[in-house]
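Worked example 4.2. Below are the chains of a multi-component assembly; read each line carefully before continuing.
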Amino acid sequence: DGGITQSPKYLFRKEGQNVTLSCEQNLNHDAMYWYRQDPGQGLRLIYYSQIVNDFQKGDIAEGYSVSREKKESFPLTVTSAQKNPTAFYLCASTLTGEWLMGGQPQHFGDGTRLSIL
Amino acid sequence: GQQLNQSPQSMFIQEGEDVSMNCTSSSIFNTWLWYKQDPGEGPVLLIALYKAGELTSNGRLTAQFGITRKDSFLNISASIPSDVGIYFCAGQGSGYALNFGKGTSLLVTP
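Applying the procedure described above to all two chains together yields the following structure tokens:
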């Protein structure tokens, strides 16, 4: 089945440690996104990528890094510079061309919950 | 990006009642989306609206794209226990990213 797979479901980080969250999609979507969700809050954009080898900062990019070496994959690294990393992280994707014409909107994975030990 | 003003923040209703929630923005959007999120899962798209004034239904759900392009509402008719969850509105302007509301938490008692 086609979809967006995020792993792991739960992740724990020690102080000063970098951790990487995985996001893979087999939908042949062009654009991929990372959002952060805190309790009682909406989703806030961390980074997004419209095509391979290109990505842009979102509203809260500080302390995070990404790469887009393959169309299917958009991993997010939470670095030690992110002082409040405990949150629910969501990855999404969409067909860019159709999106511009008002086509398929963003579809989400099931998220990774990151906690600090 | 901006966060949208979504209300109410939470609703506690009895099964069978109708529900209404809305989102407003200070900016004009080209697209309005409504998502539902169950605990520990990602949001699932319910309804997408692409044209000002558009009224779209999906089963018991009805959503409208406001004429001013700065607001949208979602109605759920004859609520059932499985409607429980958090409902998010999202608007898209000229860029690729979505702007989200803070969500409406819906609880339905049998």
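Take a moment to check your reading of the output against the notes. The interface with chain B takes residues 4, 6, 31, 33, 40-45, 48, 50, 58-59, 90, 92, 94, 96, 99, 102, 105-111, 113 of chain A (CB under 8 Å). The two ends of chain A are 35 Å apart (CA to CA).
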